[in-house]
């Protein structure tokens, strides 16, 4: 994987996630912003976000994947989605 | 595997009236229903559950809710426990705990604390590594209003992970050293569901009792669990309304005053129309929320709040209407409408009071409209 390929995928993913967060919370977070400490992710929104990610990217986020570190920022969520999509592609191929 | 409501009816029989007055459901009834998968019907078949979809599970909850809100409350907490394990547990925890919850073992869930009802910032319970080389975890805190703790084999405890800010849920056996359960006497409603104060004094559990290893966002833990609870309570309220509608209609059709059945009196007929309207509204708002869950809509958690809020307020009003129709014939503890009158009120207080639900709905409106 080249940096350019990896970068393109996560860039567009980060853009989509930022757009979703902006639309649903009324504030536009930066890619590294801590969404919990800055109050972007409210009590109700946390679950909405998980449901949205699962539906939008056809992944299942359960068990240890639900650790706070995976949801802390747009960048962390983007990495989570990419990793889980990779895992599911892999399991289908296998 | 489908759920046979006939088998449930046979097990429950005319028990609910006596359960209400004694404040206790025979635990073997709960274990049998648990073993049938009735108490957490959405657990997938691969884990030993009935694998009901949200609609079938909802209708089942309403069916039980019409018979007995105390029993339905036990269903609600067992279902929340199962939903929490299903979402946050790792592969082995899912297999182990969901197997237990569908084979007769009973669970309750512990959220509320003296300093934290709906306010997560007030949570003081801690789930932390023992740091003594054992790999165990220690659970300490005080929980209030814990439904069904007196029947439960395990308590799913929600708290801060270490010193926070992330959270964790741990499955704590009720017979573990350091667990103290103090039943609150004489509750107004859902008497046989029981509720208790639960004190956890450095309760030691193995690391594998902490779901997914802990460290999840606290709001995610709570909202996942509460959303299941809200759907369950909402369907239960639809059930309360069905029970009330059936009792009021039967009474109004047969009881005569002034030479005709009271149903022919227009003011009584209006009560029946209003009860029917409430039951239909509650059912439809539950179905709407179930559809949102089924399709993975991002507003599903809000739809669950809406369903709970609408169904609980209609159940409270509808139960009062049913008591009005039956008058002295329903004015005894244990009677289906007398139970409904007290039980429905509890539904306006739990899983987010009517006022908290309204705040959530108003926030949703301000964010999205």
From TrEMBL, chain A:
User: Which residue ranges does the record assign to the Carrier domain?
Assistant: 8-85
The record ties this protein, via PROSITE patterns, to: CARRIER
Stretches of the chain forming a coiled coil according to its record: none
Q: Which domain of life is it from?
A: Bacteria
InterPro entries cross-referenced by the UniProt entry: ACP-like_sf, PP-bd_ACP
Please identify the protein, giving its name as recorded.
Acyl carrier protein
UniProtKB/TrEMBL annotation, chain B:
Q: SUPFAM superfamilies from the entry?
A: Acyl-CoA dehydrogenase C-terminal domain-like, Acyl-CoA dehydrogenase NM domain-like
Q: Which InterPro entries match?
A: Acyl-CoA_Oxase/DH_mid-dom, Acyl-CoA_Oxase/DH_mid-dom_sf, AcylCo_DH-like_C, AcylCo_DH/oxidase_C, AcylCoA_DH/ox_N, AcylCoA_DH/ox_N_sf, AcylCoA_DH/oxidase_NM_dom_sf
| GO MF annotations in UniProt | acyl-CoA dehydrogenase activity; flavin adenine dinucleotide binding
The record's keywords, sorted A to Z, are:
FAD, Flavoprotein, Oxidoreductase
Show where the Acyl-CoA dehydrogenase/oxidase N-terminal domain sits: 16-104
Domain (Acyl-CoA dehydrogenase/oxidase C-terminal) spans 222-366
Spell out the family assignment given in the record's similarity comment.
Belongs to the acyl-CoA dehydrogenase family.
Lineage here is:
Bacteria, Bacillati, Actinomycetota, Actinomycetes, Kitasatosporales
**From which domain of life does this come?**
Bacteria
Residue ranges of every copy of the Acyl-CoA oxidase/dehydrogenase middle domain listed in the record: 108-203
Record's protein name: Acyl-CoA dehydrogenase family protein
Q: Does the keyword Hydrolase apply?
A: no
> Which cofactors are named for this entry?
FAD
